[in-house]
Write a structure and sequence with these properties.
heterodimer; A: 238 residues; alpha/beta; Rossmann fold; six-stranded mixed β-sheet; two-stranded antiparallel ribbon; 10 helices; B: 577 residues; mainly alpha
Chain lengths: 238, 577
Amino acid sequence: MEDVSFTARAGEVTGYLGPNGSGKSTTMKMITGLIEMTSGVIVFEGEPIQRDLIAYKQRMGYVPEEPHLYAHLSGLEYLWMVGQLRNLPPNPTAERIDGMLRLLSLHSDRHAPISAYSKGMRQKVLLIGALMHNPDLILLDEPFSGLDVGSGLVLRSLIQELAARGKVVLFSSHELETVERVCSHIVILHRGKIVADDSIERLRTLMELPTLERIFSQLAVEQDTRAISREIADLIRA
Amino acid sequence: MRKHQFRVLYQQFLFRAVDLELLSASAQGDISKLMGQFASLLVFLSMLAGLLGLLFGGGDMPAPQRLAATWAFEFLLIATTMLVVGMFAVLSWDGMFPDRRDVLVLAPLPVHAHTLFTAKVAAVATALSLTVAALHSFAGLVWPLILVPAHSGVLGVIRSFAAYWITMLSAGGFVLCSLLCIQGSAALLPRQKFLRVSAVLQIAAFCLLLCVYFLEPMRVTPEALTASQNRQLLAWLPAYWFLGLFQALNGTPHPALTPLAWRAAGGLATAFLGAGVAFLLSYIRTLRKIIEEPDIAPGTRGGRWLPRFGTPPLTALVQFNIRSLLRSRQHRLILSFFLGLAFTIVILYVKTPLAQRKLVDTSGESPWHQVNVPLLVSSIVMMWFAVIGTRVVFAMPTELRANWIFRITSLVGVPDCLKATRRSLFLLAVAPVWMIWAGVLLWLWPWQPAAGHLIVLGLLGAILVEVCLHDFHKIPFTCSYLPGKANVYYLFFVYALLSVTFLDRAAVWERNALQDSGRFTMVLLVLSILVVSARWRPWELAQSEGVELRFEEMEPPLVLELGLYRDGTLPIEPPSA
């Protein structure tokens, strides 16, 4: 990562894009405090997060790229544990968990061990865990991974709804179509550097390109995709 | 094509005995280090056995004594081989048969089931051979020379070597195949039932192996072997069968051992056949079931509830510790290993003349119903092993990559984490042992001395817990594991064995104190002071500045910094960059 500096504002969804290995997940982990930075500072509401990391973590929700969960716990036990670790009051937390499990169609499987969950079910558990404490900063790293169409649509609206209620939402994804629909602001990362940081509308106008896909291709995709696909097809035929 | 596939699969299966996800990131890929530790332990045992062989001065003994001594050593070597191979089979229980990961990775590939099957069998056979080879690397060179029949020449030496190695491999093969046979038969059950039964079978096999090894009587004189009262017992102890097999192969058959040799041959054939059928059936019948059904036993609704253990974060940590230990088969097995050892040491101790004398000393009608030293020592040994075993298990992670949730929600610092670990140790180790002994002692003894010892036992448990918490700045089950630190555990066993002698004396002292209220009050006072001082040190360390929760175990630095910056002067402030 080199000279990465951007701002995610409250009330809007910031899309964080980049090819594989560009540093998206690393940035997310830095913002969550999972990885320590060698230099630089992350500021939340005008304060460096290191000043009171615990208070900051209480106001942050995070959905990681990989759904690593404690598979020997049931979905309900896991969510209870997360609530307790965040020191949330028991009664409203129980209601919140129960309600979210119902809304995300996970209620009937709440007592099953997570090891028996599909990828989409695990993703829903992560999502509930990230939102149950009503965070002000929401970090979503590939949140649509494994979700079925219905749940994907719910999540898409939810992200917009949360931003409309004044939350800061930083959203990383490879699904450009979704990003285009959900995000008002995008940051494109390439080889550890920011190559674009603006609203989608302005980028479209500036670059005179009709879609986010075309903008992304021009800024972050160096290869001739058609040539590569032709080469792969030739290789497997050989 | 098939040969190449076989080679790749064989290598993969062979090195799957250890779960790499347990290891610290800095130790990842260094599986050779962990394997090397196991191998060095076996080679060390082999060197001890070889040294005993070299020191064995059987030449001067009268023939009957020499015969009994050599049979005793042979028996011990065979029994140890069976124990070690059995332990290997129990520890790599899940790696013996195809699991969900095998099926999911290999099923879409064009690999023939036959190739899978042969690769797995070859890997198991190689692992068995390597284990036996490491265990007999020295002993297998020395003992065949001692066991050569008199005046048999070079051919006799060659025959002795062949007999020795065939016997050891057969004994190991018998144990391994028997366990495979049992596991394979259980695999015929519906998958969910199998997962439940398999966990119980694994621990049962483990306990059986330990009990048989330490408790089987040594009847290795011709008189004892031929005695009618022993015949039925010997027919059920496989180590004697293989003693008979060795004698038959070595050309020194004895009428008392010949029937046992036949039993060894029959048992071996049955075990091989059973294991082969179990393996075949598992590949034919269970592969599809593995894909179709989840790879975890379904939980029951009852027993999910756990009480609160303080603030919500503390409750979360203690409940997580309890659930992790109760639901992780691997961790339960390691704890069973410690409890099994404690049980063995207790039984061995109670059988010693030292303990037996003390039982007679009480000279009542029933010495067990009076305050006696063997029970005092046994309760303390059980407490010792339960606490240390649980602490060791706490240091081994479960689902290491899922620990991110503790890192990003961590409202607890090291002091709170210590509190949670202390409560977990009390709940999972001290309380169960204390309650079992409360039942035993209150049933056997008058209530006053029983209650007195239970207070002492509780205080000793508390001291042990505090000692175990020293420098334990991590959430149990969430920090990676560094294999090099396992040396501590070998030392621990040595200390534990030495401590039994010390405990015996301390228990005599406690028995006397239980009959004298003044002395007993003094004992309680001293133990209470020890509890407080033992508690103070971890607490002080946890409060010190810069102490953080560890999630990654690190190697100690090769170079130790002394913090001297200018010609031996200790700086008041670190030098500016």
